[in-house]
């Protein structure tokens, strides 16, 4: 029992001692040969410190490298009672003492044999790589790589030349077809140099990439330039590796973003389906007009997309970066200061949608512009006048002004067109009213029912104002209907021999002809002379 207990304590103390040795073990000084670390030494030798001893060993190895040849078997180890000497022929390389072995798990002869093997291997490789034969092989390999690169560049140039010729032929054929069809080809002529330059840029980029990838191969052929090759490859491999690792790490966040996007997408599909059904009248909601359906869907879509962006923003790559956040804030400030009028028009567009002042196709008057509504969007409304002039009016201007809709009641109540004429007091008002009604009924576009009616609007100094009012359900033809109405009024009054002296006339009639066309004057009519009474 006691024996087992003592063995256990011994084991514990030995482990603690070993770990303490490892903790207290110095870092060691490396023996470096041509940028390659052979081994490390941890103890000094005689009056030389560790660093000085390492420098001496390195100098002796470099002296051996200055020889014209190297025989690996000439590296020998001689073990004495206290030291082990590693030599190359008659030249001593280093001495291994017992203190060196205390920093390893080997005894001194074993450690010396290990150092000997490392020196033989490394020196052999250096001499092999630096030999005349190997140098010649390296030169030939480099020449072969250069020739291969030149051949590949020649092949790339030839391939792109062939591709350019094929492109030119196809382009000319296309231009001939366009010209035969009477289509303008000026745009095609302008776009051709752009596409041709893109092909040239792609060719140059491929050649540069080929040359860049060939350089590491050339540098890797020669041992002394291998670090340069590794560095050049790292410029390409490290970014690709970083991108690949970043993508792998981003996969969980990507799945979260995909789930949020999928939920938003299917909610929008449901809302769009309901909006279409309401717009087509498949079902109705009390107080909700069908023309509100799609605008409401667009508003919901914008809000859902905004919510989706807020939800996925923390999962975007670089969202926690101060630069990314700063750019986002900067763009928000620019949007706030630079889009006040645009935001005002957008809000006005939404308000106008639910006010329903007009719809596409209505004849309206917005401010002093009269025309048909051909487009409504969130920022502006587009009108087309009877002269085919397209006028764009900002929604904010429409909301802040007044609008007249000629079409909203035309199909139900009928749009009343009216015009006023002034007739002298000598014409019976019953006859004038009947003439105006007859003129209205004879006009194309005027409804027979409800019947036109006349209002006497004024008793002026020299005439009476008569306003004819007629119904129409064709507000988009207002200008033509008015023109026809004016023509018929002239014809009806001329046929009845009633003068239209708008806006006024004097009472002096002697010596003046009646103001109607000659065709409508009575037979044998003569101009009265001046009548002077004494």
TrEMBL record:
Annotated ranges, domain Mechanosensitive ion channel MscS C-terminal: 418-500
Gene3D superfamilies to which the protein is assigned, alphabetical: 1.10.287.1260, 2.30.30.60, 3.30.70.100
Keyword field contains Membrane: yes
Broad class of the protein's primary localization: membrane
SUPFAM superfamilies: Mechanosensitive channel protein MscS (YggB), C-terminal domain, Sm-like ribonucleoproteins
Topology of this chain in the membrane: Multi-pass membrane protein
Domain of life: Bacteria
Keyword list, A-Z: Cell membrane, Membrane, Transmembrane, Transmembrane helix
GO annotations of cellular component type: plasma membrane
Transmembrane segments: 135-156, 201-222, 242-268, 299-317, 329-355
InterPro entries: LSM_dom_sf, MS_channel_C, MscS_archaea/bacteria_type, MscS_beta-dom_sf, MscS_channel_2nd, MscS_channel_C_sf
GO molecular function: mechanosensitive monoatomic ion channel activity
Residues annotated as domain Mechanosensitive ion channel MscS: 342-407
Localisation: Cell membrane
Pfam families per record: MS_channel_2nd, MS_channel_3rd
PANTHER family: SLL0590 PROTEIN, SMALL-CONDUCTANCE MECHANOSENSITIVE CHANNEL
Protein family membership: Belongs to the MscS (TC 1.A.23) family.
Protein name as annotated: Mechanosensitive ion channel family protein
Species this chain originates from: Mucilaginibacter phyllosphaerae
Lineage: Bacteria, Pseudomonadati, Bacteroidota, Sphingobacteriia, Sphingobacteriales
